[in-house]
Write a structure and sequence with these properties.
mainly beta; two-stranded antiparallel ribbon; single chain; 104 residues
């Protein structure tokens, strides 16, 4: 419950004229549960319930989010800092929208 579902339905001809028809395979996708229950915006990657993990802060220099440690493949919140003395012009946020939004 409260999860995306997907799969395929295969229709195979039967009966007297089955040699004149071809089998059909149709994909389906949907959501099982209350569509309004899940969050619209993916939480930060160090939080619980992360789906994509792109709700982070970036600077204009490095290719990894602020606080990300490549050695441990995890976030260290104590290292999520910026300096007013840097040559980088600043930081910018990114976030992942999980479905269409009318309001946040």
């Amino acid at each position: 419950k409260d999860a995306f579902i997907e799969g395929f339905v295969r229709l195979v001809p039967t009966g007297a004229n089955k040699d004149k028809a071809v089998p059909l395979t149709m994909p389906y996708m949907g959501y099982l549960g209350d569509w309004t229950k899940p969050k619209n915006i993916d939480p930060a990657p160090w939080s619980d319930g992360v789906f994509v993990g792109y709700t982070v802060l970036w600077d204009d220099v490095s290719e990894v989010p602020l606080g990300y440690d490549r050695m441990t493949n995890s976030f260290n919140l104590d290292h999520m800092t910026i300096s007013p003395n840097t040559f980088a012009p600043g930081v910018y946020p990114s976030f992942q929208v999980l479905r269409n939004l009318k309001e946040t």
